[in-house]
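Training component of the fellowship. As part of building independent skills, the fellow (R.M.) carried out the full modelling exercise for a liganded target. The chosen ligand was 6-phosphogluconic acid. The inputs are recorded below so that the supervisory panel can assess the work.
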Amino acid sequence: MKPLADGVKLPLGLVGLGAIGSGLALNLLEHGWPLIVHDRDAARVEALRRSAPRAPRALVPDVAASVADLLASLPRPRRVFVVVPAGDAVDAVLAAMLPQLTSGDVVVDLGNSHPDETARRQAEVAARGAAWLGCGLSGGAAGARQGPCLMAGGSGSAWDAVAAPLLAVAARGPEGVGAALVGDGAAGHLVKTIHNGIEYAWLAALGEVHELLTCSGHGASEQAELLREWADVGGLDGMLIRLTARVLDTTDTEGVPLVDAVLDRLEQKGTGAWTVELALTHGVAVPQIAAAVSGRLLSCRAAGVVDPGGPTADRERTRAALAIEPAELAVTLRAALDGALAEGLQLLAAADRDVDLGLDPAAILRLWRFGSLLASERLEPAASAWDLTAGRDTVGRVPEEWRRVVSAAVSAGQPVPVLAAGLARAEALAGGRREGAALIAALRDAFGRHGVTARRNPDGPPHHADWTGGPDRLVS
Ligand code: 6PG
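Fellow's submitted model of the complex:
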């Protein structure tokens, strides 16, 4: 679509008025974009209609009775935003649109779709001359309403057709805006998937730090204060840490922390596990992200299980045994967040190397600073543990505090799988000979004749040794 003169804004379509869709709809309306909306649930349409006029300068949306009606009512070429749950619901909307789609139409899927599904939908829509953009949206319901981070993937011409409204509603700051075309094909949903993998690890690290603080006798509101201090002066400022402080400060009517009333069982919609699958496909180690996904699975088995020694017996024992200073935890949390970020960025670089989607990890890191759940000081180049020029972690010295925190927690019987996985990764990258790896290489050669490489000649040819008791030597 050609840019219109004098800022004329032609109507857009929006399908799906859940928490994210209705927030995005209000945001678009407030920015002067006329909308035709559709949701199967009339109550949601009514709720949007009721809230729309209250927003200052907002337009009132038109309503379509079906996806087909919505398409028929839009000026050509059509631009439609789809904000429905990933999976079958997206395919149902696509099926309803497909017969009517014509050349130049652009559909944007703003859900957390699997990149492979996005690639398949792009091909189906392209067969009709139209375009499908897979666009990750981060920031949750509040972000959709006030300024999300938008990671679009697809063709440049499709992006040009929808860039104006997406740039208008995205988060922004003095140094940039939280909306961009991050690459070709399914790049947008690939980037959002990896973003979420990092998010899983960050949430888990925060959860583990919360448990350690709780076991060390710090109450929820005291923890909220500590987190704010870490955000103000500890290099940890960011969306999730501030949100954690707010959540820990929230009480019930009796003044008891509300989080105490929440069952410790975690759900997941899949993006964390997809990140781990992608990492395995592209040969990247993501131990913190994998530990976070496993932690969610384990929580489903363990939630609500009562300690036979009395509900608080274990906790009391742990508390008595734990002696961790909050300052040590701040260092540990920073290191763990950086480690998970580095895992994700390394995966982005590997995925781009293998599939060539035109991803630019530095640009993606910049984009996430605006409106995403990862927005934080840890994404600043000076703070990042990821050296974008060298394309590797800048892990130099492993912080002693990190070792102390993990060993104190483990000795006290307090599991910290994500903090420990990050530490193990950092220790591995920090160098030094791994005798265990050498032994495994030897065993592989001993049972499978896979060959070993001589330590003195790392680039030399593989050698099959005789492991029957020797003597043998590695030929270099
Ligand atoms: C965001 C979030 C958001 C949402 C995910 C999490 O960036 O705003 O990632 O997209 O919270 O759906 O999914 P899980 O249910 O798997 O935690």
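The panel noted the following from the submitted structure. The two ends are 64 Å apart (CA to CA). Residues 112, 138-140, 196, 199, 267-269, 271, 372-373 surround 6-phosphogluconic acid (CB under 6 Å).
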